[in-house]
Amino acid sequence: MRPKQWVTCLVAIALGATPAVAASQPSGSTACAARSPAAAEAVKRRAVVALYYDLKLALTQGRVLEWRGDARARVAMANATHVAVNASHGFALDTNNRALRWAEGSDKVDVVLDDVAFLAAGDTGLLAIRCDGSLWQRSVRGRDWQRIDDAAIHAWVGDGADYYVDAKGRLYVSGKAHRGQYGNGLFEESSGWVAVADDAVAVYAHTGHALFLRRDGAVLGTGGNRFGPLGRHGIGDKATRWGVIFQGATGLGTGSSHSMAIGADGGLWSWGAADGLQPTRVLPDVVAATGGSGETLAITKDGGIWSWRVGQPPVRATAP
């Protein structure tokens, strides 16, 4: 497999910001974090890489790089502090904490919301945690924002089911439930938000499945598991309740058919698809990683960027 030809950027992603990333946030982010304890937690988990199957964004030195598949990246915008993506649009927060949106390949950037600490994008729309800690939602076809909660620390828009963690660590779900996405044993979709777990610090979701990171470092998952993104938990079809998949994680992420976690020693562990059902240590000294459609991206402590297909050995990317 040939190395990607675009990467020289520093990456920290769905696994949540590391102390080094948090310390490098510009003054606008610092001011936002100072507004409320919930916003401070949300700012720590701002992402600098985002994937929606094979549409990717990477944030380096304030510039957002955009590319699809193996194509060469373009600079989509500058002065950014966070990225998110859905099937056709890129999103970013700028240094003034404004949420911005642009169509793939376009130079026209629109402001969608002000005063934002964290933004999640996906199939159903957007979830935004503002600098006062409040959580807001906008549907994929709507223009109005609806207030959901007074204080949230993390949120994620999955492929049909959406999730957020409130300031007390309670995990809430809304949307499709047919694959067990709620983790409460039911398959009926709720018209509102349902509390389904406690002691959460972050949540990530993809194609019919979800994972959350518990305060004690356990990774729990529920939902569709035909290809193993939940390991052995519900393998063959789906898991209908939250189950522990991995212990001792400091961060996590998931792709369409595989998942990953960073262990306490900095090692990256991966499971699902061609990586198999048992979590396997695939790369040492990892700061952050995320999954796409059968692909993993990671950064190591020395600043190296690694990109590889699931089941293949990690490949260090080269400069253009």
What does this protein look like?
By secondary structure, the chain is mainly β. 6% of the residues lie in helices and 48% in strands. It has helices spanning 19-23, 27-33, 37-44; strands spanning 49-52, 55-60, 63-68, 74-77, 80-85, 89-94, 99-103, 110-113, 116-121, 125-130, 135-139, 146-149, 152-157, 161-166, 171-175, 190-197, 200-205, 209-214, 219-224, 238-246, 249-254, 258-263, 268-272, 280-283, 286-291, 295-300, 305-309. The strands form seven sheets. The chain has a four-stranded antiparallel β-sheet with strand order 1-2-3-4, with no helix packed on it. Strands 5-6-7-8 form a four-stranded antiparallel β-sheet, with no helix packed on it. Strands 9-10-11-12 form a four-stranded antiparallel β-sheet. A hairpin with a 2-residue loop joins strand 2 and strand 3. The two termini are 16 Å apart.
